[in-house]
Amino acid sequence: MNIKSILHIITVIILTFSNFGCDKGLAPTEISQGGGSVTKGISGTIHFSNWPPESTLVDLRLVAFKNYPPGDIVAEVMQGNAQYTETLKPYFSDSLSYTLVLTAATWSSIQYIVVAQQFGPNIQADWRMVGVYYTPGDSTKPGSLNLSSDGIIYGINIKVDFLNPPPAQ
Amino acid sequence: MRNIYFILFIIFGLNALGVGQTQKRGEISGVVKSVDGNQLLPGVNVVLKQTVVGTITNQSGEFTISRLTPGEYTVVFTLVGYKKSEVTVDLTEGELKSIEVILQSAPVQTEPVIVTASRREQSLQEAPASVSLIHSEELSARNANTIDRVLQYVPGVNITRGQVNVRGSTGYSYGVGTRVLLLLDGMPFLSGDTEEIIWESIPTIAIDRIEVVKGAGSALYGSSALGGVINVITKPVMEEPETYIKAYGGTYSTPAYSTWEWSDNARTLSGLSASRLQKFGDLSVGVGVSRTLDDGFKRNDYWKRWNGWSRVGYTISPYQSISVSFNFMDQRRGNFLYWKDLDYALEPKDDQLGQGVHSVRWNLTAGYNHFLSNELYYTVRASWYRSDWNDNVPSNNYPEGSSSISDNILLETQMNYQMSDYHYLTGGLLGSFNRVDAMKIFGIHKARGGAAYIQDEIKWFSSLSTTVGVRLDLQKMEDAATINRLNPKLGIVYTPFTALTFRASAGSGFRAPSVAETFTNTDAGGLTILPNPNLKPERSWSYEIGGTYIPLQEIEINVSGFVNDFQDLIEPTFGLDGNVHFQNITSAQISGVEGSIGFFLFDRGWNSRISYTYIYPEDLTKHDVLKYRPRKLFYISTEIAPEPFRLGIDYRYLSRVERIDQEFVYLGIVPDGDQRVPISVVDLHASLNWQFAGLPLITRMNINNLFQYYYVDMIGNMGPIRNYVFTLESKF
Questions:
Q1: What are phi and psi of A31, to 5 degrees?
Q2: Residues of chain B with C-beta less than 8 angstroms from the C-beta of A30
Q3: Helices H, strands E: what count in chain B?
Q4: B163-166 vs B207-214, strand pairing mode
Q5: How far apart are CA B361 and CA B151, in angstroms?
């Protein structure tokens, strides 16, 4: 093999393989979403009263459901019909603010918003609802939200009384 | 320890008693040249037929086989690219015979010899299954500290976070159980508790070659060989002493995105290895040690490892030999389960920081080989694999962490009987004992088993041969029902002319559930995993048709189509009680096609291989694709070698995994866990051999993930980012 052949081969190899370097693969969320523009979500304050013992506070999250009435919380989450916040902390606060950015931008509405408490070690079974977002002015009817336009909907406030949770749906 | 003394006593006792030394020994030496220009040929395999004696030629094409008793010997010379040559030598008492052998170039590439497909030496072309070979040079060229680094370039093979898939067989089983069996010199090499492959336990500097047999192999090898068998074969000790030293150092690149940077310090990797192989008369000795360190490109994903190995062999006579080998590993590594989220992709959740695992694993193997006659050969082997690990990963019941000690003991005897030039019979008996002591996670358990197998190979015509075999396995774990599995196989090889071979095979496989799958009882991270003592073995049937065509010395084409049916696959599953159990839930069929083409141009100065595998992994239970199986694997490897330089590039493309354990995402266990892309990675290696300057030195440069492509190889786990490694290697 002479030098000329070797250079030809190396050129072919480099040209071939350099094409594989165009895509960079995964990137942080902000970059992969084109500069971090938020699509849809809700934000508000949760007011708490009558906190239970800490041993029963395994987890506490706000959950937004696509449909109403929802099925089992975990089943809805696993089917992609419910989204939730990080754990609402610190516990024993009078109120906590939250923001839930929806990762499923195809939702046109949220039909049901609750605060859910995991009270035991079983991540599938040990959940109960302790607060519901109601239609403003009507504390008997769960509130729904239209998500037709982009952006965060603010003022979605919820009251949680651990001793008087809302009736099961 | 008493066992070692016993073996040493046998070795030296036999020597002292003068077994095989009643007559003055003779010697056969010589030189091997090519017919074209009388070029001296190094690396030629020189074997005395139907004996345990052999060597390879040195850089000057010379060989010596000494201490031979009088008799007639057939010396067989083989080298890829040349025709096999046999020379008969009649050696009288004390005679020193020198011969000169001329090898002729083969019109087509001579197939290398393999031992895994049929438990005997045969050419690659004779094997009824698809087999891929990896030579030790490929490990060195890629600076592979573990063999999974090179397996990921084998057609149809991919690695998912350390778990090997042959044509989509394994998926990802969370480190408990493998559907591809790993052998070390022909003996199963799986840990006793989880029955997983611990790649780090195999010292790469001791490896001569790796054979990958695709498709179910339980008819010869028993449990775990559902999807394939990987056999790691260690280096033999040659007449000429060999010292090998390797030192390397390197660093990981800084990630391209600032939120992924988690350390101000360079993340480095380094290692030092040394080995010595030497013969002392009939005694051969090999020892080696490695120290390797890796800071990790992910936080808390470091490792620090010692590897050691040794081998002592004794040639009792040209027809009998005995060997003892020992492998050892001590490793401390951090615990990185999942990323924090995609914005902090190289950091684990905070509670994993400071968590780690310390493991000590060793393996002792002893073997005895005996040619009773030119036709009958048997071997007896025993191995003991100890796995001992402890971690500080807290569970609710054991906040201090878990630990496990397991012993896997195997005893086997194999007989090879060549009834005629056209008829081979292979059979064997095995016994096994497995003990696990892991009170905090698996409990304390014992299992025992036995197996018997037989295989009949008949060459009906020069162009047609068949292989029929069957193996019965019995396994019993405490009060559980005895597992008994009968696994048959059938293979046909048809060679209408030298350059073309067709093969067809069918065989069944099985995998007994591991202790970890059956008895894990722990809770951590919001999940509770409970035992399931009613697990049944997994079963499979593999069917393959394929062919190899070598139209020119410069081109080799391989094509195959395959269907693998799986029953009772074991998977971790959320039960109605909200807890995780391992259950036999999945029936599946993985069908596909595989093709590869190799080019060996400019007198093998430019070698390339392109392979493509398409699989359709269908979950018949859920009518969906199987989890963690990319449908398309596309690999290119090319190497140009104008002496003294070598430059090689490897490219891997794996299509995006379509289905994962979505529960981890929906339950918030792995934030952004559904983020994944196809894998498209380029690795580069270059080397300079300083032999032209009279130095026994090779300098190497590796750039892995050259274009800094970011991908996950498992939920929430980034694959290695770009790293640069510089290596000095010397053999003298």
A1: -75, -40
A2: 259, 343
A3: 6, 43
A4: unpaired
A5: 22
The pLDDT of residue B408 is: 94
Cα dihedral: B65, B70, B73, B79 (round 10): 0
Does domain A28-161 fall under CATH 2.30.30? My reply is no
CB contact under 8 A, B662 and A78: yes
Overall pTM surpassing 0.90 (yes/no): no
Taking the C-alpha atoms of residue B601 and residue A1, their distance in angstroms, rounded to an integer, is 10
Please tell me whether the interface predicted TM-score (ipTM) of this complex is above 0.90: no
For chain B, list the domains and their CATH numbers. 23-103 (2.60.40.10), 113-731 (2.40.170.20)
Determine contact, residues B517/B476, Cβ cutoff 8 Å. Answer: no
The dihedrals phi and psi of B312, each to the nearest 5 degrees, come to: -125, 125
Task: For B250-309, give the DSSP string.
Answer: EEEPPPSSGGG---SS--EEEEEEEEEEEEETTEEEEEEEEEEEE--SSTT--EEEEEEE
What does the pLDDT read at residue B111? 64
Alpha-helix residue ranges (DSSP H) falling in B90-172: 136-141, 148-151
Q: Do B640 and A124 touch (CB under 8 A)?
A: no
**Which tokens sit at B474?**
């019995």
Residue in this structure with the two tokens 């937004």, named with its chain if needed: A64
Nearest Cα residue to B413 out of B378, B385, B383? B378
- The CA distance from B5 to B245, in Å, is 30
Contact A6 B642 (CB under 8 A): yes
Cα A41 to the center of its chain, rounded Å: 9
Pairing label, strands A109-110, A95-101: unpaired
Q: From B339, B389, B381, B385, select the one nearest B364 (Cα to Cα).
A: B385
The string over B570-583, giving b where at least 16 C-beta atoms fall within 10 Å of a residue's C-beta and e elsewhere, is: bbbbbeeebbbbbb
Q: Which residues of chain B have pLDDT under 50?
A: 1-21
Q: What are phi and psi of B722, to 5 degrees?
A: -60, 135
Which residue does chain A place closest to B528, by CA atoms?
A122
Tokens of residue B487, six digits: 């696994």
CB-side neighbour CA atoms (13 Å) of B479: 4
CA B477 to chain CA centroid, nearest Å: 27
Q: What is the pLDDT of residues A104-144, one digit of tens each?
A: 556 788 999 999 999 888 777 788 899 999 888 888 888 88
Give the model's pLDDT for residue A15: 62
Chain A nearest-CA residue for B665: A78
From B616, B187, B629, select the one nearest B431 (Cα to Cα).
B187
When scoring B343, B657, B666 by the number of chain A Cβ atoms within 10 A, the one with the most, hence best to mutate, is B666
Q: What are phi and psi of A74, to 5 degrees?
A: -65, -40
Q: How many helical (H) and strand (E) elements, i.e. helices and strands, does chain A have? A: 3, 12
CA distances from B328 to B5, B139, B163, B325, B365 (A): 19, 20, 21, 10, 12
pLDDT at B345: 92
pLDDT, tens only, A74-112: 778 777 788 888 888 888 888 887 878 776 556 788 999
Q: What 3-state class would DSSP assign to B657?
A: coil
Rounded-to-integer distance, Cα B120 and Cα B426, Å: 8
- Chain B residues in contact with A21 by the CB 8 A cut-off are 682, 706-707, 709
Collapsed DSSP state (helix, strand, coil) of residue B204: helix
**B681/B272 Cα distance (integer angstroms):** 27
A117: tokens are 């408490």
Q: Is B696 on the interface with A (CB under 8 A)?
A: no
Phi, psi of A7, rounded to the nearest 5 degrees: -65, -40
A25–chain B nearest CA distance, Å: 5
